[in-house]
Amino acid sequence: MHRFLYLLVVCMLHVSTVTWAQKTAGCSFEIDGTLLDLSTGEPLEGASVYLQEQNLQTLCDEDGNFVFHNLCKGSYTLYFFHVGSLKKDTAIVLEQRKTKINISIPQDTSHQEELIVNGERHDTLTPHASHTSLTGINLDLAKSISLGEGLKSLPGVYAQQSGVNTYKPVIQGLSGNRILIFNNGVRQEGQQWGTDHAPEIDPLVADEIQVIKGAESVRYGSDALGGVILIKPAPLIDKGLKTEVYLSGTSVNRGGGASAKIDWAPGFVRSFSMRVQGSIKQGGNYKTPRYYLNNTGIREYNFSVAARKEFRRLSMDFYYSQFNTETGIFAGSHIGNLTDVKRALETDEPLTPQSFSYDIGKPYQHIEHELAKGELTYKLGRGQRLNFEVTRQYNYRAEYDNHRTASGAPGLEFKITTHTATLNWKHRISSRIRGDVGANGLYQENTVAGRIFIPNFINHTVGMYWMEKLKWNRWNWEAGVRYDVRNLKAYFNKSGIITDSSYQYHNYSASIGGSYAITDHQQWNFLLSRAFRSPAVNELFSHGLHHGVAAIENGNAQLIPEVAYNVSTSYCIEKTKLRVELNLYANYIENYIYLHPSQELELTVYGAFPSFQYSQTNALLIGGDLSFHYHLREKIQLACKLSSLSGEDLNNGSSLIYMPPTRIEPSVSYLFKNTGLLHEPTLSITSTLMFKKQNVPIEGDYSPPPKGYALLGLQASTKVKAGQTWITTGLKVNNMLNTVYRDYLDRFRYYHDAPGIGVQLFVKIPLTIID
Amino acid sequence: MKKFILFSFLSAFNLLFVSCKKNHDDAPTPQDQNETELITTVSLIIKENGTPVNTFTFKDPDGAGGVNPTVDHITLEADKTYTCTLLLLDETKNPTDTTSLEIEEEKDVHQFFFHPSTGTNITFAYLDFDDQGVPVGLQSTITTGSASTGTLTVVLKHQPGVKPRSGNGNEALGETDMEVSFDVTIQ
């Protein structure tokens, strides 16, 4: 069984629907099967099938089909795994060259905990896009830090930072308004335009975090020029009462977190399941190799509730979550003017004495995010279904700073409420062609108080989409189109006189992609897509001084939508010893919106400031991500991740600012032998080599890119058997040599060093109370 | 029992919906942009033996961005001693807000700094101090030397929690609330 679990984990790392079956020499018999849900007759897409005798594993495709090639005549045992279902001991006697079987499995959860323990689950993916996922131990480790910071470990993913607590994900060089984050299927809507506004999501709700790289607008909506991040909670259980407790600690800020989850499917209410989950987190001042960072504490509390009721064809889902945080901002970074920036740049260490404390003083951000979702799904049979979803999000952001304010009121305050509705019809034209048609609408209202940096606005968006998938021999094709219309009305009040201005943007997105299974172990994917993004409200209307970055930013109401043309291709090979995935991309963005520095300084009562105007250019981003795993010997695994890209401003013949530098992350792992008590004990030495950013524009930054750096780390993890359950525990040492460095994409590199040595530790204890 | 549990769930969800956070502000009626605190006017009131001589003003009525500020040229006589009072106003408010009065109240966290450019023969000496005896700078003595020209930069630092509790203050700490420069002629 342990061997199987190991195999399962290896298999989870796969990101393709290609049959992953090891060739056995000599014979040419095959098992060709179809797996269906016993109660609904639906194909169990993504279920895994394990052939015990040959130690082979494969996944079911969209029609529930699976196949094992190159078998010899004989008797075999098949195991079937699906989320929430398991059936074992299906004995097959292989006498014919091609044996066809049809299997239906009931909703039985008796062995589900083994999948839960692994923290991973199967998912069939769009064949053509380039995906990467954070699952298992790496996700458990990432849960003790912030979402954006945790995602940095994935190839092609980076983070734009404003100090130690604020991380915004960057996918293949694009961030902020150009990437979308879906929390449990709902597009996150907050004040994502701000460089110092981190995503308001608790990573502890996730069972998997998936990053889709490239312009995937047809499926996920306009604006996704850079990519999409999907935060996926574990599916609800079908039977029993289960809990999971997660505890974590981080030494670099003397922080700790705790989370608990209760899953319950009371047998007496038929097909009803629910989950309650909550978490708290607190941290104090971070320590860099040479000094503490005053006022970098964080406090967070979050909770969520999910419920699901199923009828024969209809299912109802409900989800509610709340995210609340108070995040300290390094006091030395909140500066009044350019003289203060220069003074900070001239000094190597912060000017004020630094010490440890859990206190959070000004400046700080107080953020609340609330999400409610209701969903109805009606199964039409033969894999077709109708889905209707309504959501509401409310985001409150208050920024308190040290500037003079009349009362205790925040210097800036934003409240944004978003309502959405989506209708989707998953249909099936033939066994080879299936697709989705749907429409969605969004209504959003934003109000601002304090220093008015962006205006109040009301935003309406309507979108329609249609996409089809075609399976043809070794090919999987997908093509889709989408049309979006956006109405934006902004309101201004100058000395009691209220004015408004309206804008309408509409455009289409389209994509075509394919994947070709070269062999059972090799796959080639490509994607061509067109996507667009309407100008965001800060790009149109921001006006005035941005204290955090000591610059005057002026919006430009004349901006037109950005249009991206994306070409990407990936090749992956999956063998027992070797796994390589290479992704190359080119993203041409017409009318790319950026802050153009003006030549003159603008004079204010705070002193003179550089001023920036939102402008447009044509941009070209070309890059590649590589991930490589090799089993040197049975127990030793070598791995390496590489990401590199170049961003060009074509109209001005210069480079784009804040593009991630080249990064290489080699690591070596030792996989210890499983024992009765320990499962998958692993010890890894990790390293990060960050190159100095070359080719940066001359203007727009107060200091040149910092020099490159190399970090060494250590990671250890195992599952420990405790009674009937397996406890997962992991430890990670970051920046083991206490290296002093600053990162190019950290806006606070003007003011302080990056954190020094720190230990992250977590324990995850699942408990089955009622089976 | 079953019904009771189901009922509890329904009530719990209902409660969640009712307790949803709401925005009571209305987008079409935005807050006045001028409601936030601003320093629009900085005046140096120069007196000689208690008799007003002149007032030199930096004025930016629309705040950062927009129309450029107007700045008076400071002209003083050589080899004289003056007193200087700083007056800071927010003229976007009605009635006008006198920011310098608030600074006087919060003098423990504020300090002005005066920087004549090199070769400008003008020196400042603080006349007012906070409760710890550290200078504030709303009142000061100006001593001019021989005839010269240059610039004078006046800086206001907001130093909550970090203003030194002894000595002459430290300009490097805190945040800049104001930094204005005047051209100066000593004749």
Question: Would you kindly provide a written description of the structure presented here, covering whatever features stand out?
Answer:
- The complex is a heterodimer of chains A (about 775) and B (about 190).
- Chain A starts with a helix and ends with a strand.
- The radius of gyration of chain A is 26 Å and the shape is globular.
- Chain A folds into 2 domains: about 120 residues, Immunoglobulin-like (Sandwich); about 625 residues, Maltoporin, Chain A, CATH 2.40.170.20.
- Chain A has 7 helices and 40 strands.
- In chain A, β34 and β35 form a beta hairpin.
- Chain A is about 5% helix and about 55% strand.
- The N terminus of chain A is likely disordered.
- By secondary structure, chain B is mainly β.
- Chain B has a single domain, classed as Immunoglobulin-like (Sandwich).
- Chain B contains 2 helices and 11 strands, in the order αββββββαβββββ.
- The model of chain B has no long low-confidence stretch (mean pLDDT about 85).
- At the A-B interface, α6, β21, β22, β23 and β24 of A face α1, β10 and β11 of B.
So how many helices of chain B?
Answer: 2
The CATH topology annotation of the largest domain in chain A reads as Maltoporin, Chain A
Question: For the terminal residues of chain B, how far apart are their CA atoms?
Answer: 96 Å
- Give the full name of the CATH homologous superfamily of the largest domain in chain A: TonB-dependent receptor, beta-barrel domain
State the end-to-end distance of chain A.
20 Å
The CATH topology of chain B: Immunoglobulin-like
Helix content of chain A: under 10%
Low-confidence stretches of chain B: none
List the total number of helices of chain A.
7
| SS elements, strand count of chain A | 40
